[in-house]
Write a structure and sequence with these properties.
CATH architecture of the largest domain: 2-Layer Sandwich
Distance between the termini: 25 Å
Shape: globular
Number of helices: 15
Structural class: alpha+beta
Strand order of the largest sheet: 15-12-14-13-17-18-16
Number of strands: 18
CATH class of the largest domain: Alpha Beta
Length: about 475
């Protein structure tokens, strides 16, 4: 860790008065832990970590920051992959771990109120206890927080059926950059009384204000979820499989991963291959298997894909344990490859263009850096693919990231060609802000900066993220 950046004594004393002496931390371990997210590009260097317990304390912290021109960075589960929650320049980190209460469940409206620090899995379990379902799900659900999910509009593995986080936010309470508390939408299903400011804060990465409380919608529980893992010979075949199944049945998920990804997961996670046949890519389909007719239809479609040559082999889960193990083949990829210091790109385009898009990206990386190993996986059902480049052992981390930065330029030129997004679900943060023009026009970026000025006139809210 670097030396502790200087925080004026008056500010430190004021923070301690707001949250209590024990809720302000200056030690190296806390600064390292709460000053970073899952990215490894920037070294954390916050001046202090504060832990508010109430909305009013958050408001007081923001007003203090405005008074003394102190930059604030929000910290949730710190599972982000774009350095959106990294405090690298002496900022004060506002950590929401102590704001973790769930309240005001309404079984008629199917809504529940969550403080910003509620863990995603905590909400999922709570919903299940009420006989309902919170469908936004991803590998980091055991540590990510609702406030962070909202601030990055998290997606995950169920988007094809349930959509993104923004589709489940019925209302928001936020503390804006100038310290106002605003209550947005109030849980209403229909509300056309002017602008829906709630949507501005969803995906804003804490640059307009801090999400402190959210009214979240819940859904009915799905019945007898069943997974199919299918081996396919080439990527274009995955799209044929998707079209075949979507034409005749509703899917709750449609994921893909490469043979290289599977090999690493099997080798490091004590899992078995889904079947002996080796394929270039694998598709994981999930659906509600509520009756014999649904299962028979799934098998018919599987056989049709086999006859067409789009599928080489496949397996279907027959129990909850098998369902979970098949999902682990996909969900454990990120954890498995983390030991190789992967450079991650989270990109998207319209579903129909994904095969050509992926082929062009892989060709340019392989041509320029043939010793780089590429691991592909993603949410192919919604046009989102994850490009992971693994660091060779003989290449220093700094050199590797510099080389990947060059790769990203080429990749994002392809993204721009296909009218896609440089960040499908992980946000922009610091790692992608230089590439924002590949997805947003000059006019759009100018408007974003004007919005930022309205809600955060003194620039204290997560500065340096999304744009400078």
């Amino acid at each position: 860790m670097s030396e502790i950046p200087t925080l004026p004594a008056a500010v430190l004393n004021a923070l301690q008065q707001i949250v209590g002496d024990d809720k302000v931390r200056l030690d190296d371990e806390s600064r390292s832990t709460f000053g970073k997210d899952w990215t490894k590009v920037y070294a954390p260097s916050p001046s202090a970590i504060v832990f508010p317990k109430t909305i009013e304390q958050v408001q007081a912290i923001v007003r203090l920051a405005n008074e003394h021109h102190i930059a604030l960075v929000p910290s949730g589960g710190r599972t982000g992959l774009s350095a959106g929650a990294v405090a690298a320049n002496g900022e004060v980190v506002v950590a929401f771990d102590y704001m973790s209460q769930i309240s005001d469940f309404d079984p008629v409206d199917r809504t529940v109120v969550c403080q910003a620090g509620v863990i995603t899995e905590q909400l999922q379990i709570y919903a299940e206890e009420q006989g309902l379902y919170y469908p936004v799900d991803f590998a980091s659900s055991g540590s990510s927080q609702i406030g962070g999910n909202i601030s990055t509009n998290a997606g995950g593995i169920k988007v094809i059926k349930y959509g993104m986080t923004r589709d489940w936010v019925a209302g928001l309470k936020v503390v804006t950059g100038n310290g106002d508390i605003v209550d947005l939408n109030r849980g209403l299903m229909k509300n056309n009384a002017g602008y829906d400011l709630r949507q501005l804060f969803i995906g804003a990465e804490g640059t307009l204000g801090f999400v402190v409380e959210a009214t979240m919608r819940l859904s009915r529980q799905p019945g007898n979820l069943t997974a199919l893992v299918l081996g396919v010979p080439e990527f274009s075949a995955i799209m044929e499989v998707l079209n075949t199944f979507q034409a005749e049945m509703d899917l709750t998920a449609f994921e893909f991963f490469s043979e290289k990804a599977l090999q690493k997961v099997v080798a490091h996670q004590d899992l078995q291959r889904p079947f002996e046949t080796e394929a270039e890519f694998y598709a994981l389909l999930e659906f509600e298997n509520n009756n014999e007719e649904t299962e028979a239809l799934a098998m018919t479609l599987f056989e049709r894909c086999m006859e067409e040559g789009w599928v080489l082999d496949g397996t279907m889960s027959q129990s909850i344990e098998q369902l979970n193990n098949l999902w682990r083949l996909r969900e454990d990829i990120s954890e498995t490859i983390s030991q190789w210091t992967p450079y991650k790109n989270d990109i998207s385009t319209v579903i129909s263009k994904i095969p050509d898009f992926l082929t062009e990206v892989e060709a340019v990386v392989n041509k320029e850096y043939p010793d780089f190993e590429i691991i592909w996986f993603g949410h192919i059902g919604d046009g989102n693919v994850h490009l992971n480049i693994l660091k060779p052992d003989h290449v220093a981390k700094d050199v590797f990231f510099e080389q990947c930065h060059v790769v990203s330029t080429w990749v994002f030129e392809i993204v721009e060609k296909y009218r896609g997004s440089v960040s499908a679900e992980h946000g922009v943060g610091m790692t992608k802000k230089a590439f924002l023009p590949y997805s947003r026009s000059e006019t759009e970026i100018a408007l974003m900066k004007q919005v930022k000025q309205v809600f955060d006139p003194n620039g204290v809210m997560n500065p340096g993220k999304i744009f400078d």
